[in-house]
## 1
Amino acid sequence: MIKNFCSDNGSGVSPEVMQALVEVNTGHMPSYGNDAVTLEADELIKSALGRDCDIFYVYNGTAANTLACKAVLRSIDSIICPDSAHIFTHEVGAPANATGSKIITLPTVHGKITPEQIKEAHQKETYWGAHATRPKLVSISQSTEWGTVYTLNELKAIKTVCEALGMLLHVDGCRIYNAAVSLQCSLAEMCQHIDILSLGGTKNGLMFGEAVVFFNQEAADGFLHLRKQGLQLHSKMRFISAQMKTLFTDQLWYKNAEQANQMAAKLAEGLVKHADIAQYCPVQTNQVFVTMPDELAKQLMAKVGFFPNGPECYRLVTSFDTTEEEVDGVLGLLK
């Protein structure tokens, strides 16, 4: 096995983050987020995101997405999202279970939806008045589940239609760092048009930990209690916040995401040189989707870890610790 390209969840911990965990593992500190490290992490994140916000640390991305939805929805409400969205496909129905809310899915082009689709879905759902749900939340992923990114103008347009329809915009940002690197923009620019953000960590070098960020601070009402009720209040909070603090120190988030993106671009460029391999969708971040004959894929998967993602479509994911030598090793097998 040359390298596992199944997921960026499979990578280890960024050395800087591991060192931070060692350093914070000294003495006693106040629990439940009342420690100095958590306060320092909050300030670093707020500075990077460029807006006043409320930040709540949780264990994982499913919890971040689910509790973000739970914070603003009742069972009579609904969520509009892409049909590839994690909240619909890969979270065991957790958001729907926690909220009791209907999820309205939209077909995508490479994982992205448009303001026009949102508007049409809203009109169809509200047409029946009290006999249907109230669309209250649009949830998109940045980057998408297909590794593509919404431009800043596309984000602005989606936010504009959300405001016109009285809806909030939630962004699943488990790979938001990769999207920012791809767009060559700051996180602050990225977050100007977001109400609630699931801020990633694990896929960009953390051992564990994500955050729910409320730019719409009214939506955060009661979330302190909701996080506890949702089994996500970490008593020794400093072990999450120390990791986040490190990620946002000296732009480690950028360094890690840039490495992953560059290796994905190199991998994709090499793969499509093979006569039987074609690019399935644009490679804009750290996920590569290609088509190839199943027999060829079977031969490769005997030596390299990656997953099928549909008929003759396969996904390979790079990480912050993926090296050029590892990519060259995969490409060398094709020769």
## 2
Amino acid sequence: MSFSFTILGSSSAVPTSERFPAAHVVNIHERYFLVDCGEGAQIQLRRNKIGFGKIDHIFISHIHGDHTFGLFGLISTFSLLGRKSDLHIFANPLLKSILEDHRKYYYEHPLPFNIIFHPLGSKKKELIYEDKKAEVYTIPLKHRIPACGFLFLEKPPPLNIIKEQVIRQEIPVKDIAGIKSGKDFVNKKGEIIPNYLLTLPPFKPRSLAYCTDTKLTESILPQIKEVDILYHEATYLHNMLERAVETGHSTAKQAGMLARKANPGKLIIGHFSARYKDTEPLLEEARHEFSRTFAAIEGECHTIEQVRMKR
């Protein structure tokens, strides 16, 4: 029952010799979601042994080039490899017309797979994806152009039934699914056996909030409160606050300040300006505000372990 976050790119604006532009992969129960698709994303997918065939859903926070330039090459590669399955892209509506222009000149026509485009708004929280295991919501952000983050939520998994109780209570197979969903059990004597005596404590649903290319905004706190992982941009050190405000970005200090109020399990900062060859000062600045801070490093995979809740 995996839930992980892999860093493919941690740079802002332009790639550097050590860092690629924004791209990340969220894995929830072997469902792989590509979040932003900066230049070189497909190279990083290969390096991290994430098969192209696993990527069916791509979420784009906004249409600046450092978050989208890798998308066009990736789609071309999908075509050349003979992809057949649908590709879902979630992004600002303007990206749809850009993709259609590229299709006219650079892609095999017609593509051997369908691109299903899901237009995103950036003004309010919206549920944009749901299946049996997970939900994804938009997080309204404040950038120079319409932008949104993404909140990934694991749905509560079924309860684990205690095997010894199945034998002791002589529970029929037909009742097991109901017990796993939280129902009590009535035994042959007509006695009601409470569900908590038949099952282990439930696992806490896991969560990840992705917030990049945004000014500091506390309006998102209700959505990111106590998530397991908060990824937040930290483009500049705080001595460049004026530049951060001008360009619609945050400083490392601001990311730490927001995390202190949101209290996530951990804060990951990224989207670093190419001016910083060493990201350690950004990490130190954020950690001064929130100790559980980590710098985004290409190839690192942050796993959220399952934890049982207390009854």
## 3
Amino acid sequence: MAGEASIISAEVPAEADGWRLDRALAAAAPLLSRERVKALISSGAVLRDGAPVRDPASKARPGSYELRVPAPAPAHNVAQDIPLVVAYEDEHLLVVDKPAGLVVHPAAGNLDGTLVNALLHHCGGSLSGIGGVARPGIVHRIDKDTSGLLVVAKTDRAHEGLAAQFARHSIDRRYHALVAGTPRPSEGTVDAPLARSTANRQKMAVVEPGRGKRAVTHYRLLQPLRAAALVECRLETGRTHQVRVHLLSIGHPLLGDPVYGRPRPEHRKLLDELKFRRQALHAVHIGFKHPVFGANLAFDSPISADMQELLSALSV
């Protein structure tokens, strides 16, 4: 694929008629960020009926658009020999069991030592370039201090197929979380839109319908603990900090969460004793249809050792 643009066909549905074009196309082509789509439009790389459209703020019309994504520039990311736990790998994708503390892709403040740097070493450069130079192969991500499973695309075909499944919410993603208190009822659904907090742009917050992006988390109690609980969360959507903010919104913040946590005195003492310094959240399961071969794949990861130690200490 070196030197060749990737062609993405995006179908704007009737309900997006009149939206800003960059917004509509970002929704229709979920593997591209809105900023990436905006830049493509401005550069004349988005076509409608064979003619370029160049105004990101113009109104979208239902129908087909063609996005010509330039071949990625040579990656400035450095391949680094960082150990990886690989749950599955073939020529199109791999599933990685990420440890807590590992950033997924380079960004300000973390320009190397990331999962992308490790993947470049592991894969020898065979990562999908659709996501751009900064994050080759990354279809979705989990927070730096969340551990567990995520899938990575090695080819553009896999990237497009996986992104489409994420957009359809057909990928089965489950997390185990240690939370303060015991949820009542013991299972339920949090359907609450999320957006950047107006008070702190580093945080996400539940907002009024129509303001943010729809976010849906299904939860169920797995094990009551001492003033705490082990909870499973199944994600219907995948927004930034979704599990952390949704559980906080129903009164059960994650133990150890440095951003959203509200530690009780007994928890604070235990967390200090165990030197547990992160949100107690682990991506325990991921299931999806192979984007090339069509087989149903599912992978599980036992919760990480530090969370297991905390769970044992909280057990009644």
## 4
Amino acid sequence: MKLFENHNLKTYNTFGMEVFARKFVEIETAEETPAAVAEYLQQWPYYILGGGSNTLFTKDFDGTIVHPVFRGIERMEENGDNVLLRVAAGEPWDNLIQYCIRHEYYGIENLTAIPGLVGSAPVQNIGAYGVEVKDTVYKVQGYILSTRNPFGLSNADCRFGYRNSIFKQTLKNDCIITYVWFQLSKRKHFTLSYQGLAKALEERELPLTLHSVSECVRKIRDTKLPDPKIVGNGGSFFKNPVVPVEQYQDLLTQYPDLVAYDAPKGLKKLSAGQLIEKAGWKGKRVGNAGTWKNQALVLVNHGGATPNDVLNIADSIINDVNKLFNITLEMEINRI
């Protein structure tokens, strides 16, 4: 382990907010986790920080930040149809994507270029272009902070939902994830339900391979989303709202082009980005913060923005969308 005090978090959050943590602990091996729990995580406040890609620090953190940095991808079991991988929490997510492409393991290629670390993926149940990580998670390992006991949760035990899991509910702030196990297919198959992805592959006349699908996803993301290394952002700031079919049909009478996808229990999932755009916020800038010119769902730090600058815009967007559609947007990003 490494301990730093009064540590600048600017390079540890993709919004690029210059805030400081009173203590910052790097866990360098999974075996160090129990010691880190015993020494640093028995008193509030503390926060487990992955890649910082879904986090908005609203002020200096007067407590302990714990940051797992240990890496590794191991093949645990394999047969003619599937492979079981155990991946360390500190492994960058896109490293896993590239590993799977090289070895021709199918299932997560649509999640290419999502920033962050593997340990954060099941917490948020990351998803994109018709795929969610829950579709491939076999189990999750880690430590419960309150009991100091190790845990292993199956896919069902993780209680995955849309951008949700047990790690955001009953285990929120009470566990450190050390390993995520993935069950991936060795048989060729793709998920092309997202119209934009299928269209991009067709237009480029590319052969259907893991590499071509991954690269198309990357290009689509590049056209819509800013590179956080250049323009600070936390990705999608709001969740796509889920509404009753009746409400969706009422909205269609006013907005015939409203985008919607089927959701469980006969509900409809709307595009938060489209709602924000229709509310007049796409590409709008207020001081040093704003929404991205190509995707209204992404709030950005143009340089020098404060957390309050971002939150003020978020509040204005929530109010304007509610007035226009009678829908209250929910933040997807974690406010710390």
